[in-house]
């Protein structure tokens, strides 16, 4: 299934022309926005907007990340920070750090569960962008770290998702899945060798895999995410009383 590489950033001045930072996967990024009237006739766009609203209102993974970003001074607004667009067939979404927008691939996201995972995955990139000075353009280790965190915390690598991909029964399957998907995402948005992508992921893997903010745990299921969201809100109340 199409899943989400991160950081579909704007070309940085002086960067080599042959690396477009993944923009080739998101052709609508460079088009003039269509009017609301024109967009309203496209079923893909309407479906994407409805599923996005459902995710933001009911999904505990997304709700926790939205609350954490708000507390970090990066409030997310639906109309400003999410954009439903047509993309290359291999991706579900992306984070455009140049505009602080999350791109949702309306032609590829067909199920609510997929929308939930894509929004969560990209919100983790947005959260990292908010809390840290991430050099998405030039530092592949920074990109690798955020991809590791997104794969680890978004539900991308739950047992059920791995079984659906016919990957199960592996020892340390979660870590293996996180590593593989981080490498895959880097290769989708950067013109680097597989060896370079693997080296970047391996060098930062332990530190970034163990960075569980803002969840405080690896949410292996919706129930885990609900507990994490509850604990996050309680932590905030506790800190407010100190």
Automatic annotation (TrEMBL):
GO terms for biological process: mitochondrial protein processing; mitochondrial proton-transporting ATP synthase complex assembly. Its EC number is 3.4.24.-. Residues 1-24 are annotated as: Disordered. GO terms for molecular function: metal ion binding; metalloendopeptidase activity. Keywords: Hydrolase, Metal-binding, Metalloprotease, Protease. It comes from the Eukaryota. It is an enzyme of class 3 (hydrolase). GO terms for cellular component: mitochondrion. Pfam families: Peptidase_M76. The keyword Magnesium does not apply. Belongs to the peptidase M76 family. PANTHER family: MITOCHONDRIAL INNER MEMBRANE PROTEASE, MITOCHONDRIAL INNER MEMBRANE PROTEASE ATP23 HOMOLOG. This is Mitochondrial inner membrane protease ATP23. The gene is Atp23.
């Amino acid at each position: 299934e199409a899943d989400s590489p991160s950081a579909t950033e704007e070309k940085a001045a002086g960067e080599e022309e042959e690396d477009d930072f993944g923009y080739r996967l998101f052709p609508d990024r460079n088009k003039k926005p269509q009017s609301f009237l024109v967009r309203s006739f496209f079923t893909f766009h309407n479906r994407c907007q409805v599923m996005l609203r459902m995710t933001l209102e009911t999904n505990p993974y997304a709700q926790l990340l939205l609350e954490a970003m708000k507390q970090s001074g990066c409030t997310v607004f639906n109309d400003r920070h999410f954009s439903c667009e047509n993309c290359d067939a291999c991706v579900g979404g992306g984070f455009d750090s140049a505009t602080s927008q999350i791109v949702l691939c309306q032609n590829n996201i067909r199920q609510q569960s997929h929308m939930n995972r894509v929004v969560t995955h990209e919100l983790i990139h947005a959260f990292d962008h908010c809390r840290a000075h991430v050099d998405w353009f030039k530092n592949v280790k920074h990109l690798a770290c955020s991809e590791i965190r997104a794969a680890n915390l978004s539900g991308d690598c739950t047992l059920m998702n791995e079984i659906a991909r016919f990957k199960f029964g592996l020892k340390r399957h979660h870590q293996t899945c996180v590593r593989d998907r981080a490498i895959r995402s880097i290769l989708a948005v950067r013109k680097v060798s597989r060896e370079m992508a693997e080296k970047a992921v391996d060098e930062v893997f332990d530190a970034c895999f163990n960075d569980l903010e803002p969840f405080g745990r690896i949410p292996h299921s919706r129930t885990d995410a609900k507990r994490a969201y509850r604990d996050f809100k309680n932590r905030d109340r506790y800190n407010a009383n100190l």
